[in-house]
Amino acid sequence: MNAGVYLSRLKLNVLLQSSFTKNQLFYREDCLPQTYNDFVAVSTLSIGKIVRFRSLGWDNKLEVNNSGNENVVSIPLAAIFSSIYFQKDLFKNALGLKIGLDVNYFTEYYGYGYNPAVGVFYIQEEKKFGNYPRLGGFVNLKIKTAFIFVKIENFNSGIGDRTYYGALHYPLPGRTLKFGVNWTFKD
Description:
This protein has no helices and 13 strands. The protein has 187 residues and is mainly beta. It is globular.
């Protein structure tokens, strides 16, 4: 079930997503499949706001999550995604420039573990993930039909005693530099 509304006066986007599943299949720490025979409800309330002032932009999204049973579906209570940037067309609109910072944050929760031998994610209660920001920076260029990007992910990796995990015993990559080109050829 999805329901949403755009409040144009506030320039605010609100979306509620809910799913109700009976006989939910999940994996416990022993990686054996189990079925939860009752209903499990998972809901997410997303609130998005984009603020523009001349060449500056600030995109924000707040998600509040609820799992009807954390022992079957494990998700963080809240997550914040924010991007602040400068965007401008230069040289008589021949060059588009967008430069900015990204911040992602989610509350602490028991994330999933992963077992590569059987290829499944499983519910674990050994280590909590989250409760720290992940920072990144980016530069995007548009030259006619070519898009060029340079991006730094996990900029704050290695600062402090935080270890960033994607799954239990699988740390996220440290500070990473990515770049690429997407060039569309036209007739």
